[in-house]
Specification:
The strands form two sheets. Strands 1-2-9-3-4-8-5-7-6-10-11-12 form a twelve-stranded mixed beta sheet, sandwiched between helices. A four-stranded parallel beta sheet has the order 13-16-14-15. A hairpin with a 6-residue loop joins β3 and β4. The chain has 340 residues and is of the alpha/beta class. Helix content is 29%, strand content 17%. The structure holds threonylcarbamoyladenylate and magnesium ion. Magnesium ion (MG) binds next to loops.
């Protein structure tokens, strides 16, 4: 855990977390950067600057660390998250780049462009980052401190904007502190963000590509490279279901019917427990033995996929209390159980 850090001119201790600036005069102790990287590797949440907005970072390969992001933000549902790395080569281990992705990456990375690409079958990034989709959003930020942090962490870092759910994105470390004090282990201060709006999100799992969110790279600049792209609304008008922001109905739904608030399984059903199962019943899956919503969130998507097997007639899920991350879990379960 981070101790008080008074070596840099701008370093400030904060209850439950800290704000630190880069300092070069602390040979006897870890630099803020090394400390932030060590915390990320230990599964903690670290807010970090990018050229667009501050991100709330977590080790993207850790289900529990990623679940903690949703809890800290107070998100009522699981929006998919952008995964950051220091360069495109490192991201090729997780997603498949086509020719369009390669050209855009070459021209705009590092920079404020996020590419939604197909997950590779052997992708080690938490399924929670994809919120159940078969795609993953990836980005290489330009900010030197983000670059240095990602290099030092040497893991993919999941990072939504570092604000509470439903509030505007933070562009200074002070904003982050106001939003997330006590909910984040460390805040790395890189000064005000240069771009100040979020990255452009481009879905390259489709042809033509779809602009899911306008942002730091202009549409025209993208079209100059890969030709005409569609906007989310134009694509939606064409009646196509899109895995876009807020369009979570299109997220992965199990093939088997899902039954909520089940006390016991019916014949043939898989039984997904939350907490102690009813006496005499051995569950087929367990969201959290101890009834911990963060752990349950971390296992949710993997559990649904695991139990979505032809030899089960359906998936019965025990009740999950509507508190904390339970709200997001239940939102997702209701979508999985909704008639299609
Ligand atoms: O500039 C940025 O993009 C900042 C910095 C920290 O990198 N991050 C950011 O993340 O704005 P967030 O979570 O606030 O917004 C990410 C957007 C959301 O609208 C989300 O729905 C979309 O990207 N997104 C992420 N993964 C996706 C996926 N696999 N498919 C479709 N949309 C995705
Ligand atoms: Mg955001």
């Amino acid at each position: 855990m981070a101790g008080p850090h008074e070596s840099g001119c701008c370093a400030q201790a904060a209850p439950g977390g800290m704000v630190a600036a880069m300092s070069e005069d602390a040979p006897d102790t870890l630099s803020p950067l090394q400390e932030a990287a060590a915390l990320l590797r230990a599964g903690r949440l670290v807010a970090f600057p990018t050229e667009t907005v501050y991100g709330l970072g977590a080790d993207a390969t850790s289900d529990v660390a990623v679940a903690a992001i949703f809890e800290a933000k107070g998100r009522p549902r699981f929006n998919p998250l952008i995964v950051h790395m220091a360069n495109a080569d490192s991201l090729e281990r997780f997603v498949t780049f086509d020719a369009r992705a390669r050209r855009l990456a070459q021209l705009f990375w590092p920079g404020p462009l996020t590419l939604v690409l197909p997950r590779r079958a052997d992708c080690r990034v938490s399924l929670l980052c994809s919120a159940g989709l078969d795609s993953l959003a990836v980005r290489v930020p330009r900010h030197p401190l983000a670059q240095a942090l990602l290099a030092a962490t040497a893991r993919p870092v999941a990072g939504p904007s570092a604000n509470r759910s439903g509030r505007v994105s933070p562009t200074t470390a002070e904003h982050v502190r106001a939003e997330l004090e006590g909910r984040v282990s460390y805040i790395l201060d890189g000064g005000p963000c240069r771009v100040g709006v979020e990255s452009t999100v481009l879905d390259l799992t489709r042809e033509p590509a779809v602009l899911l969110r306008p942002g730091g790279v202009a549409r025209e600049a993208i079209e100059a490279v890969i030709g005409p792209i569609e906007t989310l609304s134009a694509a939606a008008d064409s009646g196509e279901a899109l895995p876009g922001p807020g369009m979570l109905a299109s997220h992965y739904a199990p093939d088997r019917p899902v039954r909520l608030n089940a006390a016991t399984p019916r014949p043939g059903e898989a039984f997904l427990a939350f907490g102690k199962p009813p006496p005499g019943i051995v569950p087929d899956g367990q969201l959290s033995e101890s009834g911990d919503a963060v752990e349950a969130a971390s296992r949710l998507f993997a559990a649904l996929r695991l139990l979505d097997r032809a030899d089960f007639a359906g998936i019965a899920v025990m009740p999950v209390p509507e508190t904390g991350l339970g709200v997001a879990i239940n939102d997702r379960l209701r979508r999985a159980a909704a008639p299609r």
